[in-house]
Structure formats: structure tokens, C-alpha cells
Design brief:
- This protein is of the alpha+beta class and 187 residues long.
- The protein has a single domain (9-181), classed as Aminopeptidase, CATH 3.40.630.30.
- 29% of the residues lie in helices and 23% in strands.
- It has helices at 38-47, 56-64, 115-129, 144-153, 164-174, and strands at 9-13, 28-32, 69-70, 76-80, 83-92, 99-106, 135-139, 156-158.
- Strand 4 (76-80) and strand 5 form a beta hairpin.
- The N and C termini lie far apart (32 Å).
Length: 187
């Protein structure tokens, strides 16, 4: 028998009203998805080595599916010399009041410059501009750098599964935070 996969960890940013400005290092720019960017999005997502194997078909399915649909014009890129090197997007859920920050990826060659934080921040500004007051996201236990970025952005762990509390208690010290950040269960 195979090992049962635990559900992803959940985080919530409850107040998008006071986001800081996006500030990129010299040589980097931020822009939104444009028609024809599908392959660039796939390339950045694949470059992380941690988000599964993306193809144009998978990308198109994500943009047209009903569950957690990626809103194409809400995909953000950080570019370097015109080439996308980081991405994040809004995933729309018709049954949720919060916007979901999703599919955050950063090319390994550009890590360590705060670009993941900035592309997420740009996307959160966009999510707020669409009328959302809060944002959610899901992530995996081993994505320590991403989790640290999300906490720095103002996201907080939310317990939505019986395994979450113990897992967060193990992760938070590893990324320099304490368990006081853990939020109560969401109904």
C-alpha cells in the first residue's frame, strides 16, 4: 500500500489594505501576463524544480479549469533583460471570498535577491485591486524559503487539518518564527 499524502499547509493574509510598495533590484522589472507568455510561464514554473512538470497543455488546463482557475491576466512576472524569471498569480475560486496567491516560482539562477517576495507582493496588490480584502495560499512542508517569504509578507498559518498544528510547530522554528503565528481553525 502507498503512503497517504498529507494535505498542503494553508496560510492566510487577513488584511491586504497596507501592503508595502514593490521594490525590485536594478535590472529587474515586473509585468503581467500577455498573450503568448504561456511558454514563459511554463519555463519559470519548471525552472524551480519543485512544482511538478509543466507543459503548455497543463498551463492551458489551469487557465480554463473551474477548480482553482488561474486568471491569465493576473499572472505576474519579474523579468530580467526582458525574460521572465519569477512568477505568481491569482487563482480564482468562485466559492471563496479570498483571492488565492498561487503557483509562485523563481528561477534558481535568480534566487537570493528577494524576487519571490516582490512577485508575490505585486500579485497581492493586484488581488487587492480586484476587491479582495484577504488572500490565502497553500504550500508544502519542505518549501522553507517560500514559507519564510509568505510569513514576511504577512501570511499566517491556518489550521484546517488535524496534521497541521504539529507540522507548523516543526516548521516555524526552522524558518525563524514561533508558533504564536498559528491561527485558529477556519470554518
Amino acid at each position: 500500500m502507498g503512503e497517504e499524502r498529507l494535505p498542503q499547509l494553508n496560510l492566510m493574509h487577513r488584511d491586504l489594505s497596507c501592503l508595502p510598495d514593490v521594490r525590485l533590484p536594478d535590472g529587474y522589472c515586473v509585468r503581467r501576463f500577455q498573450p503568448g507568455d504561456e511558454q514563459a510561464w511554463v519555463d519559470v514554473l519548471n525552472s524551480t524544480g519543485s512544482l511538478g512538470q509543466w507543459t503548455l497543455e497543463v498551463a492551458r488546463e489551469r487557465m480554463s479549469g473551474d477548480k482553482g482557475r488561474v486568471v491569465a491576466d493576473s499572472i505576474h512576472f519579474v523579468t530580467y533583460r526582458g525574460m521572465p524569471v519569477a512568477t505568481a498569480c491569482l487563482q480564482h475560486h468562485a466559492d471563496r471570498e479570498e483571492g488565492e496567491l498561487g503557483w509562485v516560482g523563481l528561477s534558481l539562477a535568480h534566487q537570493g535577491k528577494g524576487l519571490g517576495f516582490q512577485v508575490c507582493l505585486a500579485t497581492l496588490h493586484h488581488i487587492r485591486s480586484l476587491g479582495y480584502t484577504a488572500a490565502i495560499l497553500s504550500t508544502d512542508d519542505q518549501r522553507f524559503a517560500a514559507i519564510k517569504t509568505y510569513l514576511k509578507l504577512g501570511f499566517r498559518p491556518v489550521i484546517t487539518h488535524e496534521s497541521h498544528l504539529e507540522r507548523w510547530r516543526a516548521i516555524l522554528p526552522r524558518v525563524g518564527y514561533n508558533e504564536e503565528l498559528i491561527d485558529c481553525p477556519r470554518a
